[in-house]
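Um, can you check?
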Amino acid sequence: MDLISCEELKNKLDKNDNFKLVFCLGEWHFKAMHIPGSINIDSPEKVVAQLDRNDEIVVYCASESCPASVMAYHALKSNGFNNVRRFAGGIEEWQQKGFTLEGDMVS
């Protein structure tokens, strides 16, 4: 699995790199809290259908132990998406680092 570190992801966002940052949990979770610039696609089937194979894609979910981004990553790779990475730490690591989050549950 091709991973991206928290710091590398933050750097890509700060530079406004052209990539799709995909939050892989449901709409309720997305509305509660997500990394700014994220789009919400909540199933492996939808992630394959809604993204372009030429896109650079980073998938993430709640934490390293959360399986949603793992399933999305494998769905994309098995459907011919070659430029896919997983931010394994997810919301949990992003928040621990003190980076900005958006959503209704962000104080």
